[in-house]
């Protein structure tokens, strides 16, 4: 087995692959592969793959199958770069496959090549038998993968042994939940990250396929080693879909998230666009759900990718997809909560340990208040503890004589409502946003449970309450 890896030299190529293998599988490549794996520095987009003439000729005579999984997967950049990495590389591999002994090509593609506008069509069905339906991909990565498949389809029609494996939504490991190191570039994670940090998800259009990375590899191998399915295209796509709004609301994940009717969620997104604490996630969601494109081109084409034929064939090869469950999202959720944890570290809560901060972050209800928005009403039941994360607020109360007196003006890090944790009761003050403000709310029930599980949190709230009492006493004496 020979692996061609982009690197300056063979030593750097070996180190790059070995480091990745160790990170992904927790064991040494040498211990598993031994001398069976040869690693060469090269570039598939260059003539003879950038190899020495001796190495190229040797491989041309020895290799009997090609597994092409390398690709430039970024969605942005220069077309020439994508063309070299994802199209020219395929042309070079086809030429290599025709040298000396015949070589089967196993090409990894993406089901996304079925996406893109088709003139005069609002919807299309995209099956394993389809390639070019006239769709116009919306990003350079998908365009380059489509052009590569069009090339391969032509060569397959000429009799070359070519299998294509179109990957779906590649996610975490089905057993451990571990995901890719560059998960920030993963559209599925970014969508989930937005739902978690918005504290809301829609009850429609939220279903996603969980094509686990380890199972995707197993599915490809299951088809690759069976000669009876040569010359086929497979959709490596888990047919069992997961509703993200239902999964994220599962008790096992410990998240406070509202599953909203779709219309209400649209209103929620529109209302919070441009608002502190929400705007970043609203923008990302519009991009990763394709809504931004729809807003600029409401006549776009939606594609339904069929996977039943591939699932049936893979089943005959002995492969069955795992049914997704909420626990599969646990590490994704943990990663998504890092945004809130980072914000909580800017407050008095920074004294809490990492696990406690994560538990606190999971129970946040993020809320935006416009200028003069009432956050807490004097003499109302204390139902939540509030932590100001952005903006300025005025704390005031009414006197017995009817005039209103300012108790204090607070900014980021201010906490109020903590007095109700012990025995409930009513608020002694009103709190109003002096300018647009972003607040983390915790229900009393949640805060009491968090304190029981993490006593240090109770000590911090006690310290905050004591500090406010001390400031009030000093003010009283100074008067």
Overview of the molecule:
The protein has 479 residues and is α/β, with parallel strands linked by helices. It folds into two domains: 2-176 and 208-242 and 302-334, NAD(P)-binding Rossmann-like Domain (Rossmann fold), CATH 3.40.50.720; 337-478, Jelly Rolls (Sandwich), CATH 2.60.120.10. Helices cover 41% and strands 19% of the residues. It contains 18 helices and 20 strands. The strands form seven sheets. A four-stranded parallel sheet has the order 3-4-6-9, sandwiched between helices. Strand 16 (393-398) and strand 17 (404-410) form a beta hairpin. The longest helix has 24 residues, at 455-478. It is elongated and about 100 Å long. The protein starts with a strand and ends with a helix. The model has no long low-confidence stretch (mean pLDDT 92).
Which fold does the CATH topology of the largest domain refer to? Answer: Rossmann fold
Low-pLDDT stretches are none
**Roughly what percent helix?**
40-55%
What's the shape?
elongated
User: Residue-averaged pLDDT, rounded?
Assistant: 92
CATH class of the largest domain: Alpha Beta
Strand arrangement in the largest pleated sheet: 3-4-6-9
Structural class call reads: alpha/beta
Name the descriptors:
479 residues; alpha/beta; Rossmann fold; Jelly Rolls; 4-stranded parallel β-sheet; 4-stranded antiparallel β-sheet; 18 helices; 41% helix
């Amino acid at each position: 087995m020979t692996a061609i890896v982009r690197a300056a030299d063979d030593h750097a190529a070996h180190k790059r692959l070995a480091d990745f293998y160790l990170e992904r599988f927790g064991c040494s490549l040498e211990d598993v592969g031994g001398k069976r794996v040869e690693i060469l520095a090269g570039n598939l987009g260059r003539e003879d793959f950038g190899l020495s003439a001796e190495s190229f000729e040797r491989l041309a005579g020895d290799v009997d199958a090609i597994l092409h999984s390398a690709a430039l997967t970024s969605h942005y950049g220069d077309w020439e770069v994508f063309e070299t990495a994802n199209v020219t590389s395929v042309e070079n591999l086809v030429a290599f496959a025709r040298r000396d002994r015949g070589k089967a090509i196993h090409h990894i593609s993406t089901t996304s090549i079925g996406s893109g506008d088709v003139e005069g069509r609002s919807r299309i069905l995209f099956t394993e038998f389809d390639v070019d339906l006239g769709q116009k991909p919306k990003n350079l990565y998908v365009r380059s993968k489509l052009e590569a498949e069009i090339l391969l389809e032509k060569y397959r029609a000429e009799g070359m042994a070519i299998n294509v494996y179109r990957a779906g939504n590649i996610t975490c490991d089905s057993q451990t939940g571990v995901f890719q190191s560059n998960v920030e570039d993963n559209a599925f994670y970014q969508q989930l990250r937005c739902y978690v940090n918005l504290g809301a998800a829609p009850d429609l259009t939220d279903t996603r396929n969980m094509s686990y990375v380890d199972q995707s590899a197993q599915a490809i191998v299951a088809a690759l080693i069976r000669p009876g399915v040569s010359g086929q295209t497979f959709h490596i796509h888990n047919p069992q879909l997961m509703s993200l709004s239902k999964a994220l609301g599962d008790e096992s994940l410990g998240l406070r998230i509202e599953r909203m009717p779709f219309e209400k969620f649209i209103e929620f997104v529109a209302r919070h666009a441009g608002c502190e604490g929400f705007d970043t996630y609203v923008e990302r969601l519009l991009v990763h759900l394709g809504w931004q494109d729809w807003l600029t081109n409401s006549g776009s084409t939606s594609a339904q990718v069929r996977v039943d034929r591939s699932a049936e064939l893979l089943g005959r090869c002995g492969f069955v997809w795992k049914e997704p469950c909420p626990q599969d999202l646990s590490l994704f959720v943990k990663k998504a909560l890092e945004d809130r944890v980072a914000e909580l570290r800017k407050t008095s809560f920074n004294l809490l340990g990492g696990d406690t901060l994560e538990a606190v972050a999971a129970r946040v209800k993020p809320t935006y208040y416009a200028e003069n928005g009432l956050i807490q009403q004097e003499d109302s039941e204390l139902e939540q503890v509030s932590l100001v994360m952005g903006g300025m607020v005025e704390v005031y109360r009414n006197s017995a004589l009817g005039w209103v007196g300012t108790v204090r003006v607070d900014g980021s890090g201010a906490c109020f409502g903590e007095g109700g944790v012990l025995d409930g009761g009513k608020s002694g003050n009103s709190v109003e946003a002096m300018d647009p403000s972003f607040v983390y709310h915790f229900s009393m029930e949640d805060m009491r449970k968090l304190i029981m599980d993490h006593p240090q949190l109770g000590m911090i709230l006690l310290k905050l309450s004591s500090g406010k009492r001390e400031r009030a006493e000093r003010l009283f004496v100074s008067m």
